[in-house]
Amino acid sequence: MQTSLKFNSINKDNYQNDDYSIGGAVSILEKTFADILGKESAMFFPTGTLANHLALRKLCGTNQNAIVQHQSHIYLDTGDSLPRLSGIKLTPLGKDKSHFKLEELKDYLYELENARVYNPVGAVSIESPVRRKSGKIIPYEDIKSITEYCKSKSIPIHLDGARLFIMSEITGIDVKNYSQMFNTVYISLYKYFGAPFGAILAAEENLIRGLHHDRRMFGGSIYSANIAAIAALNGIKEFQEKFKLAITNAKKLLIKLNTIPGLNIETIENGSNVHFVKLDTNINLQAFIQNLKNKFILVSNDEIDVTKIRLNINVTILNQSIARIFESFKESIDKPR
């Protein structure tokens, strides 16, 4: 059973008195997320890229070798930012897979320990759900085995948990259960809490203390961060209840959509909120997508298989009834005459 979220109150005076991301609603946001994640402290960042970067920079210290997933955002979507800006080498494991297994990590660490020149690992990073793998969730037992082994080796561990709250609702495992396995945890504020931008990095006090200096050096101490903080504080109050209902509605909708001739719903093993629809070849795909858009339903082509469309389930599914969405899909099929 998941813990009910508790929130610190905001009053009118908090709305405009943060000083370059310090104080005001930003401090309330940081305290709120530290409590939710079961950490001693937390810090606001304008982007998840910067939160991930400074987390690994802090954890690695002088051991500038970090292990990441080959398909992770940190490795494939931020260029060489960590090597170039912080001198941290990224070692990718689990090539082309959603994640690496414990044995692969052990094999790599064994190679390091027996190398002619020892280059110790400063940190291990895990991303889940994995965006580049259609939101696949790393099984809890795999996360647990890897983090426990890292702790036994005194290797710090970072969680790129941009979509952690989505994963928690899907698996039914409380966010604190995930968070407690990691030294640092990053959470996105704009992906589902309604903030226009922003991220939270939560950790023990000794890791967060003084990190605002690094944030400022990297240009991340922005003015009026309270805009994002207030939006996120309001958004998270409703997220649990709304997203739970969204997932319930999505399950019912997918069953109904699978009854439409020419459409076939494909599920993803260890999936989260991403689903695929395979269309018969005689269906005009682009017309189908446009017809849905005209009915205020946004879908997109799959990046790999152009005969599929991708459905990202979020709280906007609650804007229309299941029956209406189902009818929209039926009416949007445009087959050649």
Provide a compact summary of the structure.
With 337 residues, the chain is α/β, with parallel strands linked by helices.
Describe this structure in words.
The chain has 337 residues and is an alpha/beta fold. The strands form two sheets. The chain has a seven-stranded mixed β-sheet, with helices on both faces. It has a four-stranded antiparallel β-sheet with strand order 8-9-11-10, with helices on one face. It is built from 13 helices and eleven strands. The protein folds into two domains: 227 residues, Type I PLP-dependent aspartate aminotransferase-like (Major domain) (Aspartate Aminotransferase, domain 2); 75 residues, Alpha-Beta Complex (Aspartate Aminotransferase, domain 1), CATH 3.90.1150.
SSE order, one letter for each helix or strand: HEHEHHEHEHEHHEEHHHEEHEEH
Instruction: Please list the strands of the largest sheet in the order they lie side by side.
Output: 1-7-6-5-4-2-3
- Broad structural category: alpha/beta
Largest beta-sheet details: 7 strands, mixed
Overall pLDDT metric: 92
Shape by Cα distribution: globular
Q: Which regions are unreliable across 5 or more consecutive residues at pLDDT < 50?
A: none
For the record, the count of structural domains works out to 2
Give the N-terminus to C-terminus distance in angstroms: 53 Å
